[in-house]
Write a structure and sequence with these properties.
Shape: globular
Structural class: mainly alpha
Distance between the termini: 31 Å
Largest sheet: none
Order of helices and strands: HHHHHHHHHH
Strand content: under 5%
Length: 251
């Protein structure tokens, strides 16, 4: 089951650029019964490895804008470090319910934003801003990734589409590179402080590594928009399930 989960998650990442944290952590919590903090660590490390494979492919195609990446990294990296240390500063048991709520709500918002972008004929209305504002715009995304592992793909994509003049292909590639940087920093902090659940991670990677290579090639055959629509509907359901579980634990 872990092999299949890793395969499907990485396939979605390779085709759409969305899903490393938004899919992985909820699946680990809901279906593999990992603790919330372990799921965040596993999702971040898994996302790092998968994006290390996918990002160079987009970079080779000229679909990573290094100038925009520099500005979003200036805001996202300090914030992801703060979010990661904040999560590790608290008692993990007492944080189970808050993490479930935060991950659930973030997944729902991210999926809904991506869904709206995909079905809107005009997409996200572009309102490019001066690049000096990009670090402030993406900082909350970085903090969210550090605290819950979710949001870099979907929310980052929407931010880049709305506040930059990047082409759609550049948005996917640049956001993947941005997500990779966030995952490296956050994953390293979480792994150092909490350890890595190697047993499940290796099974996920066994399915994920070949799948992300397949996914990056399928972008020339499949319509990423249709895959994003299906993925977002499922993510809204998963996010709602996580939020409901958090509500039940309070009873």
């Amino acid at each position: 089951m872990e092999f299949l989960a890793g395969f499907l998650i990485a396939l979605a990442i390779g085709v759409t650029g969305v899903g490393a944290g938004s899919i992985t952590a909820p699946i680990l919590i809901l279906f593999f019964h990992q603790s919330a903090s372990d799921a965040v660590t596993t999702a971040l490390v898994f996302g790092t490895v998968v994006k290390l494979i996918a990002t160079p492919i987009y970079f080779a195609r000229g679909q990573v804008n290094l100038r925009v990446l520099k500005f979003v990294a200036l805001g996202g990296l300090p914030a992801v470090v703060i979010g990661s240390f904040l999560l590790n500063a608290f008692d993990k048991r007492s944080l189970t319910r808050p993490i479930l709520i935060i991950v659930g709500v973030t997944v729902v918002i991210s999926a809904a934003a991506t869904f709206w972008r995909s079905i809107s004929p005009a997409g996200v209305a572009k309102k490019p801003v001066s690049e000096k504002w990009l670090p402030w715009i993406v900082a909350p995304i970085g903090f969210e990734v550090g605290f819950s592992s979710a949001g870099a793909g979907a929310l980052g994509t929407v931010a880049l589409m709305r506040f930059t003049s990047l082409l759609p292909s550049e948005v996917v590639g640049t956001d993947l590179a941005f997500g990779l940087l966030l995952s490296i920093f956050a994953g390293g902090i979480h792994a150092t402080m909490n350890g890595v659940p190697w047993a499940i991670l290796l099974k996920l990677l066994a399915g994920g590594i070949p799948a992300v290579l397949i996914g990056t090639q399928l972008t020339t055959i499949l319509a990423p928009r249709k895959m994003r629509l299906a993925l977002c509907v499922w993510l809204i359901y998963i996010g709602a399930q996580l939020s409901w579980r958090a509500f039940q634990t309070a009873q």
